[in-house]
Design a protein that fits this description.
The structure holds two protein chains of two kinds. Chain A is an alpha/beta fold. Chain A has ten helices and 14 strands. In chain A, the strands form three sheets. In chain A, strands 6-7-8-3-9-10 form a six-stranded mixed sheet, with helices on both faces. A four-stranded antiparallel sheet of chain A has the order 2-1-4-5, with helices on one face. In chain A, α4 packs antiparallel against α5 and α5 packs parallel to α6. Chain A is elongated, with a radius of gyration of 22 Å. Chain B is mainly alpha-helical. Chain B has a single domain, classed as Arc Repressor Mutant, subunit A, CATH 1.10.10.10. Chain B has a two-stranded antiparallel ribbon. In chain B, α1 packs across α3, α1 packs across α4 and α2 crosses α3. Classes of the chains: A alpha/beta, B mainly alpha. Chains A and B meet through α6, α7, α8, β14 and α10 of A and α2, α3 and α4 of B.
């Protein structure tokens, strides 16, 4: 199925950098995504998620560093990358005057591979009307059409750039269904950028958090959540919080309540906080993905 | 079967808890098949690897067992395993409640009273005619 090293990573970048004028959109991004992985790329607006994905698609020149998709250098052979990658862009540039069936026919002619059965199944799953004109389609339907095209040419990697924003709950669920089917049936490698943290939690096994063009952290989602805790300590009157333990990504003092989010949490770190002078009592609790994400970004903004 | 993706409880554990509860309640009986990975993943909208992880845990517990080439089945003593494991879910929920009480500065006696009242209320509800 693959032409190069089928055991190598699906996506790899080393020091990937993109500069627009004086703005560093992506800065020294190094990442390795194994085959079969579903990777959720998270980050606030302007973090560099789309820029990263467009560089991986060979659609945007690279300022520095290198990137490979399925072992192919994205700069030297973008055509090869486009044939082997399914891409759902943030904004759709599907021809507006075409009918759905014409879009499908057009795309089928563009790709070396095309699976008619997958295409039919997706048409049915999404309830797409082949006779409808693209300009009559809602945002959600357009996104589903883009996914249909992306998976019908049997890509080895699926790149989904913020596909879920602006979709109503039903369209979102149908879209998730479509992605999950290709993961189940083909062991599809997926890179999805999104703000919809609940949906990322459902889909992804690995996540990376991008902030101001830099990758702040990356890892298995369950492991990240399992090893991060939020400690809440109550301070005695007039006491200021002391030095937080290593791995504190964010902290806040509100009245007598001192809240800390700590990565690589251990019982020793908890005891350390508990034993600090001025700490009356303390408790530790698990976090959801949304809290983890927000705390990490807040911590960065506060310059921790 | 409902999954809460915003919960701090890992999704694979939520799935395992749901399957245990379903087996304990007789939704799936001994000897019956569980939904396939694909069916479960697309039904609850979760990555199939996560479902696999939950199924692996349930296999280790002996609640379900693979039958070669046919999928996963509830084992003969599955219902008993499910009931004893359901205790873990109850323990976790009680831990959370106790922590909330301690943070609020409640004494053990105060928490116990709330617990006893809640038990009585549930018993009354169970006895009420529908």
């Amino acid at each position: 199925m693959t032409t190069s090293a089928p055991s190598g990573p699906a996506i790899e970048c080393i020091g990937l950098t993109k500069r627009f004028g004086s703005t560093l959109a992506v800065s020294g991004l190094s990442l390795k995504i194994p085959r079969g992985c579903t990777f959720g790329l998270l980050g606030p607006n302007g973090a560099g998620k789309s820029t990263t994905i467009r560089m991986l698609m060979g659609m945007l020149s690279i300022t520095a560093g290198r990137a490979w998709v399925l072992g192919t250098n994205v700069q030297s052979d973008p055509t090869q990358v486009k044939q082997r990658v399914g891409y759902v862009p943030e904004t759709h540039h599907i021809y507006r005057w075409m009918r759905v069936r014409e879009v499908i026919g057009f795309c089928k002619a563009c790709f070396r591979r095309w699976n008619d059965q997958t295409c039919r199944e997706m048409l049915e799953l999404f309830g797409l009307d082949p006779e409808k004109k693209v300009k009559q389609l809602s945002k959600g339907t357009l996104t589903k059409l883009a996914l249909l095209v992306a998976v019908s040419h049997e890509p080895e990697v699926l790149l989904l750039d913020e596909p879920l924003s602006g979709l109503d709950p039903i369209a979102r669920e149908e879209f998730l269904d479509g992605v999950l089917r290709t993961i189940c049936d083909r062991g599809q490698t997926v890179l999805i950028s999104s703000h919809m943290l609940d949906d990322v939690r459902r889909l992804a096994d690995t996540v990376g958090i991008l902030y101001e063009g830099r990758l702040l952290l990356e890892g298995n989602l369950d492991a990240l959540l399992g090893s991060t805790k939020r400690i809440t300590a109550t301070l005695r009157d007039g006491c200021r919080p002391k030095e937080p333990p290593d791995g504190t990504v964010w902290q806040r003092l509100q009245g007598r309540e001192w809240t800390l989010t700590v990565r690589d949490f251990t019982a020793e770190k908890f005891q350390q906080v508990r034993a600090l002078e001025g700490v009356e009592h303390a408790s530790a609790a698990d976090l959801g993905l949304e809290e983890l994400f927000k705390d990490i970004i807040r911590g960065q903004r506060a310059g921790q | 079967m409902q999954i809460d993706p915003s919960s701090h409880v890992p999704i694979y554990r939520q799935i395992a808890d749901c399957v245990r509860a379903a087996v304990a309640a007789g939704v799936y009986r001994p000897g019956e098949a569980l939904p396939s990975l694909r069916a479960m993943a697309t039904e609850i909208h979760v990555n199939p690897n996560t479902v696999q992880r939950a199924y692996d845990e349930l296999c280790r517990e002996g609640l379900i067992e693979p039958q070669r080439g046919r999928g996963l089945f509830v084992s003969q003593h599955g219902a008993a395993v499910a009931r004893s494991a359901a205790g873990n879910g109850v323990r976790r929920a009680i831990d959370d409640a106790l922590r909330a009480g301690r943070t609020a500065g409640m004494s053990a006696a105060e928490v116990r009273e709330i617990f006893d009242v809640a038990l009585q209320r549930l018993a009354q509800e169970a006895n009420k005619p529908p």
